[in-house]
Amino acid sequence: AKRKGRNTWQWYHGAGVKSTLDSVFLRNELQQALEKDEFTLHYQPVVDAVSGKIRSVEALVRWNHPERGMISPGDFIPLAEKTGQIVPLGQWVLRQACREIARLNASSERMLPVAVNISSLQFLRENFLTAVDDALEASGLPARFLELEVTESVLLDGAEPVIALMDTLSSRGIRVAIDDFGTGFSSLSYLRDLPTHKVKLDRSFINKTLTDRRTAAIVQGVITMAHHMDMVVVAEGIETEDEQNDLVRRNCDLLQGYRFSKPVPLEVLAELPDRLPGI
Ligand code: C2E
Ligand code: CA
Ligand code: CA
Ligand code: CA
């Protein structure tokens, strides 16, 4: 989102009159991209910390722009959240991920669950549950193979409706994980009240655990606490063997990061071995 040129990408982050123009421009571009099928999903494996076995994959959206090439979600998701277009885009991602992983599972011996990132705006929409049901039904993916990743920001307007929705989802067999745990503003008591089975520790913690004692204490604390609440912990953004070893030593359950695999297209995912011991 920093490119200059005729369309001045950088305007989007600016304020004032220009940013109004920009959101109109971006709204159109995103709308067209959805219609023209310019979005695509990559999948990143999540591995068992001890065995390196692939346990699930996370779907991550990319915008395959005809002129600008692959645009990463960091450059358009925040904007799509501003314009509200994250809702139709998120719906597309949900349906596409279910469809692709159902197809992959049908053609292989390996049965992989897929995790889909859900924006708070999308999660808190009245018809979200219907959208999830539709995606599962249209794809044939069993509910237990779908996991939704939400961040602590879903709690900003109060916890009760969120807890109710998570209860309904989990009664259908759909699991909900807390993404980017520890980066938001919510209190620890939320974790106690949320019917969730998994927390994902943000990369900003992981890449500091080896050098910062206080960060290490938070990481260890979250892992221990989550285990006492019968939750599993995923460490995101593992890049080095030292980071891997450190998290294994701290009893982290699952690992995700470039050390094992970058997010890859479905065809590449299909060819990955069952175990990714780390490069
Ligand atoms: P996230 O959900 O925390 O996803 C993890 C991000 O970390 C991904 O970036 C992934 O490619 C990156 N990553 C994984 N391992 C490593 C590593 O070892 N090192 C480094 N440096 N990075 C690593 P990506 O794909 O660019 O996605 C960025 C964010 O965009 C995601 O963060 C998520 O918040 C959002 N996003 C992506 N796809 C979707 C989507 O379909 N819907 C919604 N609502 N948000 C999405
Ligand atoms: Ca995520
Ligand atoms: Ca995350
Ligand atoms: Ca993140």
Task: Provide an overview of this structure.
With 279 residues, this protein is an alpha/beta fold. 42% of the residues lie in helices and 19% in strands. The chain has an eight-stranded mixed β-barrel with strand order 1-2-4-5-6-7-8-9. The longest helix is centred in the middle third of the chain and has 21 residues, at 86-106. Residues 179-180, 200, 202, 236 line the site of one calcium ion (CA). GO terms for molecular function: cyclic-guanylate-specific phosphodiesterase activity. Residues 23-277 form the EAL domain. Keywords: c-di-GMP, Kinase, Transferase. This is cyclic-guanylate-specific phosphodiesterase.
List the helices and strands and how they pair.
Layout: H1 17-35, E1 39-48, E2 54-65, E3 69-71, H2 77-83, H3 86-106, E4 114-117, H4 120-123, H5 128-139, E5 146-151, H6 160-171, E6 175-181, H7 188-193, E7 198-201, H8 203-206, H9 213-228, E8 232-235, H10 241-249, E9 254-255, H11 266-271
Parallel strand pairs: 2-4, 4-5, 5-6, 6-7, 7-8, 8-9
Antiparallel strand pairs: 1-2, 1-9, 2-3
Helix pairs in contact: 1-2, 3-5
